[in-house]
Amino acid sequence: MDNNQTTVTDFILLGFLVSPKMHLVLFGLFFLLYTFTLLGNGVILGLICLDSRLHTPMYFFLSQLAIVDTSYASNTVPQMLENLLDPAKPISFAGCIMQTYLFLMFALIECLVLVMMSYDRYVAICHPLRYTLIMRWGLCIALAITSWACGSFLALVHVLLLLRLPFCGPQEINHFFCEILSVLKLACADIWLNKMVIFAACVFILVGPLCFILISYTHILNAILRIHSGEGRKKAFSTCSSHLCVVGLFFGNVIITYMTPNSRNSGEQRKILFYFTASLILP
Which carries the bigger pLDDT value, residue 185 or residue 269? Predict the structure, then answer.
């Protein structure tokens, strides 16, 4: 068989392996959570746009995170909700590849935006007198453009490596969306290169940025502890706590999924982790 030939024209997403009645329960629950995610991020974007006092670098990066989170969730959750109502409905090969690309792109962009937010908090707390000089609007916009460009390019690399593989059956993806590792399991060829590139990307785009964030927050913590005013310390902690929660949820889930050995009993747990990462991360 020609290695570049693709004989599979569509896939079936197995979703959550539960009873049909449970599908309706999950549909109602996930629909409410997805609606809450859209409303929450929509309110954040609306407030930032309408209130001129929020036109600062901190809220600029917050708006970027809200846009990415909304896009991230909208790429995966609607497909999952549709599958809960009609589990046998297939997704086209092209649609599956596009969903994989968008998932990777938004995940990579979110990682980079979280790094930028940690740098912004580092400058604000550790170098407050130089904050406006360092966090210029030109720099903020350049960082945002760089994150979107890098995320798009790295996601494209993974998808191009995926497209070189032949898919000749089976068609069932054990996930609620076209997650790249689940799709790779269906390839009729050696996927060693794909896995190595994924692992290398995790080291480069996850471990490296996470170390940067941890170093930034180490300096931030030292600066906060030197603040004599209890009210000042409380205010400084409040500006960082929500960001740290998002960092822990996002990086923890991705590292568990892509940088730890596979477990036979981890499939359903990982689906749950993916869902909450996709639909519940709020800035």
Answer: 185
- Which domains occur in the chain, in start order? 10-280 (1.20.1070.10)
Question: Which residues, at least 6 apart from 241, have a Cβ–Cβ distance to it below 8 Å?
Answer: none
Rounded Cα distance between 223 and 206, Å, is: 26
**Is the bond into 170 cis (omega within 30 degrees of 0)?**
yes
Nearest to 172 by CA among 89, 254, 61: 89
CA distance 150 to 108: 8
Strands 172-173 and 91-92: unpaired
Do 152 and 103 touch, CB atoms closer than 8 A? no
Chain segment 185-208, per-residue pLDDT in tens: 999 888 999 999 998 888 888 888
Residue in the block written with tokens 């639909």: 279
The vertex-20 CA angle with 17 and 26, nearest 5°, equals: 75
Under a CB-based contact definition with an 8 Å cutoff, are residues 246 and 281 in contact?
yes
In sequence order, what are the beta bridge partners of 13?
173
| DSSP bridge pairs for 11 | 91
Q: What are the pLDDT digits (tens) for 214-254?
A: 898 888 888 888 877 777 677 767 777 777 778 877 887 77
Helices 208-225 & 230-258 angle (0-180, nearest 10): 160
* C-alpha torsion 253→255→256→262, nearest 10: 140
Maximal CA-CA distance, the chain: 72
How many C-beta neighbours within 10 Å does residue 36 have?
13
